[in-house]
């Protein structure tokens, strides 16, 4: 059965973490908002339904038959075993989920660099606050989170080629997206710190070379980073730290 991914059209955003897993696995899926005749109207029809017993709060959410699964980490916890992107060991699956939830926390902080006051306001309405928030993010939060993931990679008893277990998981794909997104949003900060994260950068490079991912990155399905998504490049917010 074809998976249906519901997310906003035109941005990678949080939906990209799910897309990467589906693309790596060669899964049969549709990005519903980009489907002619459906678009975001189909997404809102589910979210605003007065009869669906388990309506999602916000996108992204995945529809698998009659089952609707919301939240990125929850979707990947569900998809991981089905797509061969989760550890076989049940205990390690919870470790992977915990790591993905940490990615979720980090993504929320990335978003708040450009919208630190109010999500309903434009970036231009909170630019000065965004400068202060981004300076603190570059100084404190990038090394906090990336340093943590670097240690997890290095201390994986199965080897530092993967973040958990001895094979590729959805968390590896998510860390690829984190590094790619931060490099787009904060190129000076990331260039200045790249020597601190050799295992993460090696993982990013290895994921980019995987055949299915490489084809996806070169295709029109991979939306470009832009200033409407989570990872936004505003030069005035970037610094070497």
Give an account of the 3D structure.
By secondary structure, this protein is an alpha+beta fold. The protein is built from nine helices and four strands. The chain has helices at 15-25, 39-47, 72-83, 90-114, 127-155, 170-185, 187-193, 198-209, 211-217, and strands at residues 3-6, 29-31, 61-64, 67-70. α6 (170-185) packs across α7. It is globular. The mean pLDDT is 96.
Provide mean pLDDT, rounded: 96
Second rung of CATH, namely the architecture of the largest domain = Up-down Bundle
Q: What is the CATH T-level topology of the largest domain?
A: Glutathione S-transferase Yfyf (Class Pi), Chain A, domain 2
Low-confidence stretches: none
């Amino acid at each position: 059965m074809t998976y249906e991914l519901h997310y906003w059209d035109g941005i990678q955003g949080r939906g990209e973490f799910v897309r990467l897993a589906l693309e790596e696995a060669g899964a049969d899926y549709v990005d519903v908002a980009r489907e002619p005749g459906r678009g975001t109207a189909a997404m809102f029809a589910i979210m605003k339904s007065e009869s669906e017993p388990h309506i999602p709060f916000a996108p992204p959410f995945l529809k698998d038959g009659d089952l609707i699964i919301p939240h990125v980490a929850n979707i990947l916890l569900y998809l991981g075993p089905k797509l061969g992107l989760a550890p076989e060991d049940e205990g390690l699956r919870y470790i992977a989920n915990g790591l993905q939830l940490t990615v979720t926390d980090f993504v929320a902080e990335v978003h708040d660099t450009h919208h630190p006051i109010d999500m309903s306001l434009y970036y231009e309405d909170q630019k000065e606050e965004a400068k202060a928030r981004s300076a603190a993010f570059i100084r404190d939060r990038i090394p906090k989170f990336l340093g943590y993931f670097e240690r997890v990679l290095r201390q994986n008893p199965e080897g530092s080629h993967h973040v958990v277990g001895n094979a590729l998981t959805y968390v590896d794909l998510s860390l690829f997206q984190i590094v790619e997104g931060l490099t787009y949003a904060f190129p000076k900060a990331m260039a200045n710190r790249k020597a601190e994260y050799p295992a993460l950068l090696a993982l990013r490079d290895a994921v980019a070379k995987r055949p299915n991912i490489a084809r996806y990155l070169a295709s029109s399905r991979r939306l470009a980073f832009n200033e409407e998504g989570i990872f936004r490049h505003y030069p005035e917010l970037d610094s070497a730290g």
